[in-house]
Amino acid sequence: MADAPALTATPAPTAAPAAEAPTGERYVALGDSFSSGQGGPGDGAPCREAIPLADGDLGWFGEKERQFNTMPAQQVNVYDATCVDTYTPSIGRDACKPVGVRWVEPEDVGDGAGFHPNGAGHRAMTEEVVGALRR
């Protein structure tokens, strides 16, 4: 068996990452709603069939997700960027919802990795980003 390559540290960015359009404008997209807070883990509602965590842990995770999305939204003015809100459209389509409704998968499946967008989620976020680029 071959030795695994050594891991090297990646330097931290000095500025917030932003996609730059050909016009020179900058865009920052927020994340999707893994836990919407509307019947999903964000409000601590039971979701054990999809996500086997304690209710308190689900609520904590949802709060951290909202905090994570707040940080880039606050930085758009600092970097003269446009915020593309891909979080709000995903509310109600979290990993606790049934197949066909959810945009985030609770586990690894053919259409998406666990706690990441599935095909429908990727399409919806793409529509938001393309819509912002066209404005």
From TrEMBL:
Biased composition (Low complexity): 1-22
InterPro entries registered for this protein in UniProt: SGNH_hydro_sf (IPR036514)
Renumbered residue ranges of the record's region Disordered: 1-47
Gene3D superfamilies, alphabetized: SGNH hydrolase
UniProt name for this protein: SGNH/GDSL hydrolase family protein
Organism of derivation: Streptomyces triticagri
